[in-house]
Amino acid sequence: MADVHYQPQSLEAAIQKIWHEQNTFVTKEDDSKEKFYCLSMFPYPSGKLHMGHVRNYTIGDVISRFQRMQGKNVLQPMGWDAFGLPAENAAMQNHAAPAEWTYSNIDYMRTQLKSLGLGFDWSREIATCHPDYYRWEQWLFTKLMEKGLVYRKMSQVNWDPVDQCVLANEQVIDGKGWRSGAPVERKDIVQWFVKITDYAEELLQDLDQLDGWPEQVKTMQRNWIGKSSGLEISFPIEGREGQFIKVYTTRPDTLMGVSYLAVATDHPVSHKASIRNPALAEFIEACSHVSTAEADIETMEKQGMDTGVRVLHPLTGEVIPVWSANFVLMSYGTGAVMSVPAHDQRDYEFAQKYALPIKPVILPEGADTVDVSSAAFTEKGRLFNSGPFDGLRFEQALEAMAAALSAKDLGEKQTNYRLRDWGVSRQRYWGCPIPAIYCPACGVMPVPEDQLPVLLPEDLVPDGAGSPLAKLEEFKNCDCPQCGGRAKRETDTFDTFFESSWYYARYASRDCNTAMLDARADHWLPVDQYIGGIEHAILHLLYARFFHKLMRDQGLVRSDEPFKKLLTQGMVLASSWFSVDATGKQTWYSPLDVEPVLDEKGTILHGLLKSDGRQVQYGGVIKMSKSKNNGIDPQTLIEQYGADTLRLYIMFAAPPEQTLEWSDKGVEGCYRFVNRVWRLVHSHCESGVVAAYQGKEPLSKEAQALRLKVHETLQKVGDDMGRRQTFNTAIAACMELLNELTKFSAQNAIERALLQESLEILVLMLSPMTPHLSQVLWQTLGQSGLVVDVAWPKVDENALVKSQLALMVQVNGKLRGKIEVAADADKTSILSAAKHDEAIMKFIDGKVMLKEIYVPGRLVNLVVQD
RNA sequence: GCCCAGGUGGCGAAAUAGGUAGACGCAGGGGACUUAAAAUCCCCCGGUAGAAAUACCGUGCCGGUUCGACUCCGGCCCUGGGCACCA
Fold first, then answer.
1. Which of A175, A200, A385, A498 fits a 20 to 30 Å CA distance from A589?
2. What is Dmax (Cα atoms) for chain A?
3. pLDDT higher than 70, residue A584
4. CB-strand contact A89/B, under 7 Å
5. Closest CA-bearing residue to C1' of B40
C-alpha cells in the first residue's frame, strides 16, 4: 500500500481549518433539539496555557462532543477572566499597562486553545475587562444599592506601611509584605459589602436540589454557610449602666460554667480599656501584625490579656472578667464569646495557660462526676452546678435559659450563620470600577444608569504604591447627579469574583447591548454540565449561586440555580527537583532536565542534571507551578505528538476528579496507541472499504466472540463517558478492543464486513478524545461528513447474548476454582456442578456443608465446617 | 486550628450494587524481525516458598460486622484542596 504515515501536525491543522470554515461549533438556539450547555471555568489570561487548563478544557470538550453525538444542541463557549492581580504585578515588572499585557496574553492563549482542537463557539467570546461586559455588573450593583442589598462598613485589610498599599493574603509572607518585607499591619477602612447573608437560608436549602453536584462540594458549602441555633446573650458591663457585651453561643446549656468573656483585640471594649492600660495597648498592637487570613489567626499561639473590664453574669450576677484575645475575630458574630473552659477545648487550654477558673456544669449521660483534669468535656449531657437548671438536658436547658434570659431582657434564641457578607471593595486598579459617587451635600449614591459604564482608564501603569485610580484626578472628580455640585467618584474596584459570578449567563446574550441578559439566557440556562477545579468548591461556586439568585430577583433569569451538574477536576502534578546553595537558597529544575536515580526497589534517591551531571534533590510530586519550575508546557507536546495524543493521555492517566501525575512515558504510550489505530484502519482499508456488518449473516465462533467484545465495549464506553464520566476506563476499554481487533484476521467477506463495523465503532468511540484522528480515519473508512455530527453507534443486543458463563467457586470465601456453565442453567445444577468439580472436591470432601451461596452470574461460595 | 477529599504492584491506575484484587497503560525482563539500530510484533511481570502443580501472605495502620470487605462501621497515621484580598 501507499505508505501513509500518521502526521498529526498537518492533519490536525487541516481538520481545524474545516471546523473553522464550516462554523462547526457556532451554536444557535434550536427548539427542535434538546439543548446541552457545557461550560468549563474560564481561565485567567496569565500568559500561556498550563496543563490544568488542558485538562479542564479537554474534559469539557469530550463531554460536549459526546453529547452532540447523542443528538443534542450543544453550547460550549469560552472567555477570559481578565481582571486581577497578576496583570498589575506584570505591569510593574514590565512598566507597561495591564490592559496591553492582558490583551496580548488573550490572543496567544486563544491560538493555543484552538490548536488543542477544542470545539468552542468563539462567536460568544467574553473578556471581563471589556466595558461591554463589566458595565452590566455595574448596572446590577446600582440596582442592589436601590434595593438595600449593599452597604458600607469598616473592615480590616492587610496594610503594607512601606509600600502604602493593601496586600492580598497571598502577598503576606510570614507576616511581612512580599515586596517591602515590612511587617504588615491591620488597618480599618470603609468598604462595600453585598448582603449574601440575606440569601444564606436559600443558598443552604437549594443545595438539596443540586442532585448533579458532588456530595463533597455540597457538604463544604453547607459547612461554610454554617447554620446554627443558639442564644444571643447580653452581659451587663459592671459600673456602666445600660451597656452590655453581647455574645452568641450554641451551648447555652453551659451558661452557668462561664468563667470569662473573650473579646476581639479590636473590639470597642478592648480599645476603650487600652487607653488607660499601656500593657494592653501594647498587646493589641502586637496582635495587629498578623495577617487577616483565618488560617493564620487559627494556627497562631492563643494569647490574651485581662482588660480589667468586668461584666455581670446575666442570671447569677456573678462578676466575670473580660479578656482581650487574639483568636476572637471581630468580623465573626458579635466579636465576643463566652468562655466555658470545662466544656470547650480551646477555652480549656486558654484557662490553663492563664490560670482562669474551670467550672464543670455538664455531666456525661449516666455519670455523676465529670473529669476535666486533662481536657474539656465537650459532649452534651445533663446539667449540674447550675442551680435551678440542674438535671436538664440540652434541649430543655436551651428553652429554660432562653426563658430566664428573656424575662430579664438579656437574651433570646437566635439562628446564626457562619457566612459573612461579601466584601467586594478592592483598593486596586485592574478591576471593574465600583459605580458610586460621594457628594458632600447629598451623600453616597449610585452612578445613574445613563452614565454607565464607569470606564476604567486602560493606559495607567501601577507602581506598587496604592491604586493609580485613586491618584487620578480626572477619574476621581465628577459632578453630583443630584445637586450638580462637585463630587468624588469611588476609586475602589470590585473583587474579581464579581465578574466570574455571572459570565456563564452572559455567554447566552453576549451581543445584547440593551440589557445585562435577554430571553436567550433562559433558553440555555441552567448550565447542564459545569467543569472546573476543586479549589473553587466554595468561594466561586457560592458567589455564582448567589449572583444567579440576585439576577433572578431582578427578573433576568427564571431558574433558581446556575449549574445543574458539576464536575470538579483534580490538579495536575509533576515531580520536582531542587538544589540548595551555601546560603540555603533553593533552585528548582524542570523535570525534563533531570534523570532520576533509583534504588533497586524503584525508590527515587536523587536526580542528575542532564546538562552537567550535577546531583539534585527530589522534591516529591507536587502541583505544577512556576515557582517550583515543574510545569510541563502543553505547546511542546502538541508540537511533538499532536493534540489528539495529549488529549487522550490527559483523559487516560486518571479519572477526572483525581489528581493527575504527569508522565512523559505515559504520553508516549498513548502516542503508540494512536499510531496502532491509524495503522490498523489503513491496513484494513488497503484492500478496499466494504459495507459494515449488520448482524444478519451467521459468524464463526471467533468472529462471534469478536463481535461480542465490540458491542460489550460500545456499551461500556457509552456508560463510562455518559453516566460515570470515567473517561480513563472508557479509553482502557478501547485499548482492549484494539488488542482484540489486531489479533483478528478476516478470512472472508463477512469477516471483513465485521472488521469494518468494528473499526467504524472504534473510531466513533474515540472521536470525543481524538477528534482529528477520528475525522480523518472516518473518511479513510469511506464515510463522509463530520464525525461530530454522526449519531453515537447503537449497541446490538443480539451481539451481547452469551451461551456459556464462567463462574468462580469459593470454599469458605476463598477462591478455589472456576466452572463453565450454560447461561440458562438453574441454581441446583450450578451448585451441583461446583460440588463435583475436581479442584473443589479436594476442599470439601468429608466435611459438613453449612451453607451454599450462589450469586447469579458471578460466583458460588460453599461454606463447610473446618 | 477548622471543613472536605485521598492512600491498592517499581509507577499511573482498574475492580460500577459487599462477590475472581491488580483490567488498561508505563517501566523492566526475555524472544522474533533486522547487517545493525530505531520502529514494530510475541511472551513474562504483587510478595514469600517451590522445578512445577500449588500453598500462604497482600489494597496506609489497629480493631469490628459478614459465608465473603479495596468496598460497610469505630479509632489512628500520612498526603492533598479550601479557609472569605491568588484565581
1. A175
2. 106
3. no
4. no
5. A676
d(CA A141, CA A684): 63
Q: Is A122 helix (H, G, I), strand (E, B) or coil?
A: helix
Residues 454-473 in A having a C-beta less than 7 A from any atom of strand B are: none
Tell me the C-alpha distance between A478 and A489, whole Å. Answer: 6
Does at least one atom of strand B sit less than 7 Å from the CB of A292?
yes
Sign of CA dihedral A336, A339, A344, A345: positive
Say how far apart CA A47 and CA A573 lie, in whole Å: 20
Strand partners, A154: A190
Give the type of residue at A371: D
**Which three cell numbers mark A484?**
450638580
**Buried b / exposed e along A198-212 (16+ C-beta atoms within 10 A):** bbbeebbeebeebee
Inter-axis angle of helices A727-743 and A749-766, to 10 degrees?
Answer: 160
- If you measure CA to C1', which residue is closest to nucleotide B16? A724
ipTM given for this complex? 0.96
Nine-digit cell string for A153: 462598613
* Measured CA A861 to C1' B16 distance, in angstroms: 22
Closest nucleotide (CA of A156 to C1')? B85
The predicted-structure confidence for A843-854, as pLDDT tens digits, reads as follows 888 888 999 999
Report the distance from CA of residue A661 to the C1' of nucleotide B29 in Å, as an integer: 26
* Torsion of the alpha carbons at A580, A583, A584 and A587, rounded to the nearest 10: -40
User: Beta carbon of A415 within 7 Å of strand B?
Assistant: no
pLDDT in tens, A35-65: 999 999 999 999 999 999 999 999 999 999 9
The vertex-A612 CA angle with A610 and A617, nearest 5°, equals 70
Closest nucleotide (C1' vs CA) to A665 is: B26
pLDDT digits (tens, 9 = 90+) for A279-336: 999 999 988 888 888 888 888 888 999 999 999 999 999 999 999 999 888 888 889 9
At A448-461, the pLDDT tens digits run 999 999 999 999 99
Q: What's phi and psi for A615, nearest 5 deg?
A: -85, 135
Q: Is A276 near strand B, with its CB below 7 A from some atom of it?
A: no
Summary count for chain A: helices (H), strands (E): 27, 37
Helix or strand or coil: residue A163? Answer: coil
The label of the residue with cell 496502532 reads: A676
Report the nucleotide nearest the CA of residue A423, measured to C1'.
B84
Element (H, E) at A861: strand A859-864
Determine the distance between A266 (CA) and B80 (C1') in angstroms: 35
pLDDT of residue A804: 85
Q: Which amino acid is at A306?
A: D
Positions of strand B less than 7 angstroms from a protein CB:
1-6, 10-16, 19-21, 23-27, 39-42, 55-56, 67-69, 80-87
A84 φ, ψ (degrees, to nearest 5): 155, 170
Give yes or no for CB of A90 within 7 Å of strand B: no
| Nearest nucleotide (C1') to alpha carbon of A497 | B87
Strand B contact at CB of residue A137, distance < 7 A = no
Asked if A745 contacts A686 with a C-beta cutoff of 8 angstroms, the reply is no
Helix axes of A771-780 and A749-766: crossing angle, nearest 10 degrees: 160
